[in-house]
Each structure stands twice: as structure tokens, then as C-alpha cells.
Amino acid sequence: MNINATLINLYHVCPRECxxxxxxxxxxxxxDTVYDGKLLHETSYSQRAEKYTEIELSAxxxxxxxxxxxxxxxxxxxxxxxxxxxxxKVEEAHEWQIKYYIWLLELNGIENAQAxxxxxxxxxxxLVVLNDADKQHLLSIISAIAQLKESDICPPKxxxxxxxxxxxxxxxxxxx
Length: 176
Ligand code: SF4
Known about the structure:
Layout: E1 2-4, H1 5-13, H2 15-22, H3 32-42, H4 48-51, E2 53-61, E3 65-75, E4 80-84, H5 91-107, E5 114-119, E6 124-128, H6 132-150, H7 169-173
Parallel strand pairs: 1-3, 4-5
Antiparallel strand pairs: 2-3, 3-4, 5-6
Helix pairs in contact: 1-2, 1-5
The protein binds iron/sulfur cluster.
């Protein structure tokens, strides 16, 4: 079974969104937020590609689960991941996605990496590090995602503020 950074992120936003995504129900093409994010990535930060490296990582957990992740901007000299996002509405999910990347680096023999999470449009940035408790949390989340992937039952709606900007909004609430 494969688990990637997108699933780690989505699970922290909404387990239902994670389930819909992992079952191939994708509506991101209808999401302005996703388009906006791609535009931010391709325009504002194109110069970063010259300075930092893009790396793809993988690791196997208990001979059962393959963990994968692609870091777009990695400073190999300083061991710092640079991650940019437009909105901080799901900042916690962003942080766990990045902690997952740091952990993947560690599983590949790169110890003590850190990350800078930036919201350029908000002029806000924060340092993200990984500790032992974070690793335990990631292990439990990976186990929960593995169960979710094997389940035929779609988790309940979360009825949260974030639903209004979710690409699955119509699918979730069309009958209400
Ligand atoms: S609309 Fe809300 S409940 Fe539905 S998938 Fe998105 S975040 Fe989850």
C-alpha cells in the first residue's frame, strides 16, 4: 500500500476528503484554490528552482506500507525544506505534511532536517521541526489512513468552515 504526503495533508483537513481522494474521486480541477496554488508555485517561485533541489523520497514501513513524497524546494547544504502555501486556513495540515517530509528525509539517512513554511501573500513564515512525539503521531495517522484506504465506508461530513472552500463541497452538501 502506498501513502503519500497529499494523504497526510488531507487526513488532517478531513478524513472524508482523504477517503474521497484515495478512492479516485477527484474534483480538484473545479477548485479555484488548487488552481491558485499551482499558479503561485509556477510564477512567484520559479527562481527557486535554480537555487534548490527537487527530490523524491520513499521508505518502507513494516514491509507493508510504502511512504512516498516529493519535496519541491530542498536546500541540501542547510538541510532545509522550503514549502510555500497561499492560505493558512489549514495550517495544521500543512505542518503535518512538512513534518512527514522531514521524517521521510530521516528514514533516508538525513538527520535533523528542518523546514520553513511560508505564506508569501500573508507575509508569514514559520520554522517546522520534527520531534519523537510527532513521529508517533505520524505513525498513528499512517495506520488510520491505511484503514481508511481499505474501508468501503466514506467517513461523515465534518460540517466545518473549511467545507465552503473544499472541492468536494457540492458533492457533500448538494442535498441539503
Ligand atoms: S466538503 Fe467538508 S466534509 Fe466534504 S470532503 Fe470537504 S472538508 Fe470534508
